[in-house]
Each structure stands twice: as structure tokens, then as C-alpha cells.
Inverse folding.
């Protein structure tokens, strides 16, 4: 059990709301009261650059810079790409560059994961969310450790997942101590696989939870948290305040925007940023994301490990997802993801099952590096619905758009020449934070990605796949191994040794 003696406890919701936020941990990262989300600069970029016609010569210079350096662009450069993306010929060039960058940094693999909702008690009142306090329609529950084990038996034992995003409402009863215990439970559960009886387990637990103080983050670091994700929802302060009532903890914009600075100070050095697209002008959000990434790089020399692109989806007891004036269509969504890939070239891009299959399929080549499948976001949904694609508005935060199973997804990706990766090696061999930034920018990490994708895909095919899917996967692996032999001839025998050991039943071998 993790040592949680440094974590503060709160007697009730009122105590939590009043005392949870530590002002000194905000002020430290806003020196002189100046916020790194410079709204005046963002608005100038939109008005003076993004809304004016782009010069194709300048656009190509920016694309060349992005591809050759893999460094985060300046907001002014991102604004040029926003303007250019409205022109179909220039957008085609942007998309082609994004595809090359994705290939250089991450190769042709997509990492898969599953969301696992732990609790939906919440002390906040976010107007777009089914979990908000006061939504009497929502059925509330907190997973016990025994119930969590049942969920893991489906996720790791039947579906074959090895990577989770654990999701929590914000509540004094599901504090950091609870989060730490759930993470440990996930890592400790070993479940036999259906085809071979070999034990499978969750090897990486990423967390999506409310912003935390530094001492709490240190505890999560100790129990082996993967990426810590916090979505800003909207960077526009006025809109933020409209969506998140002042009485709520989440109503504090500065506590949320400084959350990753605290993570990096605490040593939680894989951080995942995100915006809830559809609440505000997407150009404002994307430019603010660039400013956020650049401020983290300035303080810590570490940028976002991932960017997520949740879009507003229908949720129980709210009309915001249908009535917001800023909802975006699929074409705009593709522009956003493409510009993000070009603007923060080294980052992982996560597109969740909120999206329809059609929308996700469009993004596989260009920007996306991670997706979830066989997802169920009802609390205790995996064990209650025996892995059926079942949804219930009153038991979940919002409705999912893509209900494809892992088998369907693996085959769809294979048809497109994309390998499904279950790799979780990065953080377990210290390739996180600043250490991974360099490897990503130079394309070195992409090579590890490819090899680890092959090894973990082999595991999944043998342990979990149907005969038909295994046959499809075998062909893809043959092709990938031939590729590795060609571009890494000296290293190839070592790779083959690990591959053959995996075929014989050894597990969790990685580079
Ligand atoms: N409760 C914590 C918080 O808000 O920081 C943890 C995250 S919450 C359980 C997960 C995320 O779901 C939110 O950050 C938000 O971006 C997203 N979300 C909430 N309502 C949504 C909706 N109606 N459609 C799509 N995503 C939504
Ligand atoms: Fe609570 Fe998070 Fe939903 Fe807001 S988005 S109501 S904080 S669960």
C-alpha cells in the first residue's frame, strides 16, 4: 500500500471546496500575476493572421520547419496554418506533411488502450457533463477494489488490454488515496488469457482526474502513474467561468491551468493536455494549447506527452452538447488535428471513442497515435455487460460514437497497413519526460515503437485473437519484420531473439 501520510483529508464537500486548492502552488507559476495564456496575443493571431489569406511561400516554410526540427511552432506560425487550412490545395500539402511527421516520430503504429471509469461522484457543476453535482438523473457509484478486479478480469483477461486511462470524478471520498489504491490494484491483477492461459495484466495506468497539489502528485508518481491527463475544457477565461460555477473547485481557472507545472515539479513527467472542442472557437483553443505547451517547455524543457481531442457529446441532464454555438463538424475536426500534429510535431495525439468510426478513420494516417477500442464508460460497465457494446446515458458521463471491438479495430488497422501496438515500454525503461522528448524529435523513439509494437502485437495475437484475425496479423508482422531487417540490419538478430522468445510464450519483452 502506498504511503499516503502526506495527503490532506477533508471531512465533507464544503471543507474540500474551501480548502483543497493551494494558492501558493498557483502563484509560483504565474510570476507577477501574468498568465501564460495571453488572450490578447491569441486574439491578435486570430484577427491579424488566421483571418487573412495565407502566403503559400510562408506556409511551405513553416511546414519545412515543423518537419525538419519537430519543435513546437510559434503561435503566429500556427495561425498561418489555420488560415491555410481553409484552402483545399494548401490543406492537402499540410495533411501530407503531417503524415510524414507522424511516420518519422511514431512510425506506422497506433497504440490502443481502454478507458476505465472508477467513480462518478463529483463536487463540481460543469454544465456539459453528466456527472455534475445536482444531476439527479445520474446513477452514482464508486468502484470497490473487488468490483475493480472484476472490471480488470474483462479488460486484461478477455479483451487483452495492457494500457488503461483510469477516469475519476472529483470528490473528497475518491481522493488521491483512492486513486493510488486503484492504480496499485490495476497493476497487481494478473488474469489468464483465453487462448493460451498465459497471465496478462495492465502494464500502464494513465490517469484522467482533477488537478492535484504537488504532494498528492508525488504519491501517484510512487505508485507508477503513466500519463496524468487533465483537459482544460476551454482556455477562454470568460467561457470557462460560465461553464464552471464559481462555487466549485473546478471554477478556479488558474488552479487548472497550472496543474501540469505542479506535475512536472512533482516528477510526474508525462503530462496529457486536452481541450473539450465545441465549447469555444477552436482557433482560440488550439493557439492557447500552443502557449501552454511552450510555457511547460520554458519552465521544464518538457512539453505535452500527449494532446487529446475530446469533442462535446450528448450527456444526461444537459443541452450544452447540442446547443453550444461553437460545435464543429468533421472537416473542421480534421483541420484541428492536422494543425496540432504540425504545431507540436513530437506529441502523441489521442482520439477517443467519443468520435464516430468515420471521423476516427479519417485521422489514422495524419495525426493520431492512440485510440481506445472495446470501450465501455459506464461505471462497472465491462463486467456488467460482458463486453457488449452497451450504453446507458444515466450511467455514463456522455455517449460514445465508436463501439468497435478490439478485433474489428485490429483488422481495420491491418487493412490500412497499420500495426496495432500494446506497447507500454516507454515509462518502464525511463523513456519519459525530457528523456523521451529528444528521442521523439529525432525519430529514434519511432524505431523502438515499431519493434515493441511487433512484440506486443504478437503477444495479443497469440493470447487473445480469433484464428481469422491472427492470420491477418501474421501477414502484417512478416512485413514489419522484413522492414526492421532492412533498416536495422545489425540490430535485427537481437530483435529476432526477443520475437522468437515471445512466440515461445515469454511475455513482456521490450526495448
Ligand atoms: N472530473 C475530472 C475533471 O473534470 O477534471 C476528470 C475528468 S472527467 C471525468 C473527463 C473529461 O470528460 C472531462 O475533462 C471533459 O473534457 C470530458 N467530458 C465531460 N463532459 C463531456 C461531454 N458531454 N462530452 C464529451 N466529453 C466530456
Ligand atoms: Fe465532475 Fe469532471 Fe464532470 Fe466536471 S467534467 S462534473 S469535474 S466529472
Amino acid at each position: 500500500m502506498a504511503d499516503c501520510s502526506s495527503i490532506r483529508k477533508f471531512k465533507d464537500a464544503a471543507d474540500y471546496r474551501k480548502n483543497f486548492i493551494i494558492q501558493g502552488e498557483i502563484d509560483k507559476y504565474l510570476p507577477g500575476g501574468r498568465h501564460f495564456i495571453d488572450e490578447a496575443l491569441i486574439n491578435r493571431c486570430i484577427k491579424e493572421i488566421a483571418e487573412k489569406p495565407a502566403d503559400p511561400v510562408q506556409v511551405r516554410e513553416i511546414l519545412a520547419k515543423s518537419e525538419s526540427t519537430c519543435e513546437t511552432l510559434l503561435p503566429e506560425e500556427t495561425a498561418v496554418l489555420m488560415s491555410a487550412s481553409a484552402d483545399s490545395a494548401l490543406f492537402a500539402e499540410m495533411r501530407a506533411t503531417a503524415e510524414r511527421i507522424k511516420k518519422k516520430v511514431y512510425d506506422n503504429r497506433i497504440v490502443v488502450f481502454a478507458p476505465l471509469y472508477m467513480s462518478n461522484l463529483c463536487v463540481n457543476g460543469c454544465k456539459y457533463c453528466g456527472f455534475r453535482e445536482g444531476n439527479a438523473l445520474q446513477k452514482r457509484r464508486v468502484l470497490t477494489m473487488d468490483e475493480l478486479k472484476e472490471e480488470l478480469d474483462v479488460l486484461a483477461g478477455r479483451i487483452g488490454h495492457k494500457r488503461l486511462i483510469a477516469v475519476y470524478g472529483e470528490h473528497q471520498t475518491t481522493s488521491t488515496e483512492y486513486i493510488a489504491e486503484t492504480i496499485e490494484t490495476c497493476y497487481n491483477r494478473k488474469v489468464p488469457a483465453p487462448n493460451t492461459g498465459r497471465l496478462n495484466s495492465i502494464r500502464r495506468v494513465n490517469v484522467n482526474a482533477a488537478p492535484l497539489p504537488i504532494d498528492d502528485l508525488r504519491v501517484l508518481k510512487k505508485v507508477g502513474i503513466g500519463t496524468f491527463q487533465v483537459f482544460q475544457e476551454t482556455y477562454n477565461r470568460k467561457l470557462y467561468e460560465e461553464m464552471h460555477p464559481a462555487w466549485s473547485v473546478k471554477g478556479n481557472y488558474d488552479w487548472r491551468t497550472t496543474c501540469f507545472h505542479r506535475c512536472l515539479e512533482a516528477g510526474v513527467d508525462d503530462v496529457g493536455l486536452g481541450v473539450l472542442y465545441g465549447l469555444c472557437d477552436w482557433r482560440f483553443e488550439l493557439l492557447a494549447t500552443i502557449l501552454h505547451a511552450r510555457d511547460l517547455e520554458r519552465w521544464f524543457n518538457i512539453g505535452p506527452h500527449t494532446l487529446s481531442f475530446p469533442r462535446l457529446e450528448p450527456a444526461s441532464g444537459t443541452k450544452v452538447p447540442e446547443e453550444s454555438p461553437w460545435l464543429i463538424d468533421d472537416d473542421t475536426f480534421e483541420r484541428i488535428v492536422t494543425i496540432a500534429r504540425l504545431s507540436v510535431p513530437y506529441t502523441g495525439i489521442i482520439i477517443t471513442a467519443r468520435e464516430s468510426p468515420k471521423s476516427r478513420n479519417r485521422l489514422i494516417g495524419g495525426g493520431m497515435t492512440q485510440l481506445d477500442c472495446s470501450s465501455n464508460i459506464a461505471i462497472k460497465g465491462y463486467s456488467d455487460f460482458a463486453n457488449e457494446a452497451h450504453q446507458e446515458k444515466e450511467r455514463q458521463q456522455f455517449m460514445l460514437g465508436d463501439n468497435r471491438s478490439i478485433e474489428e479495430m485490429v483488422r481495420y488497422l491491418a487493412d490500412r497497413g497499420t500495426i496495432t501496438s500494446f506497447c507500454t515500454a516507454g515509462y518502464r525503461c525511463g523513456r519519459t519526460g525530457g528523456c523521451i522528448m529528444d528521442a521523439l524529435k529525432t525519430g529514434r523513439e519511432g524505431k523502438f515503437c515499431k519493434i515493441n509494437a511487433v512484440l506486443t502485437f504478437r503477444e495479443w495475437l497469440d493470447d487473445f485473437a480469433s484464428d481469422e484475425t491472427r492470420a491477418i496479423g501474421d501477414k502484417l508482422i512478416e512485413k514489419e519484420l522484413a522492414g526492421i531487417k532492412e533498416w536495422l540490419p545489425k540490430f535485427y538478430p537481437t530483435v529476432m531473439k526477443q520475437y522468437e522468445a515471445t512466440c515461445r510464450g515469454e511475455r513482456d519483452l521490450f526495448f
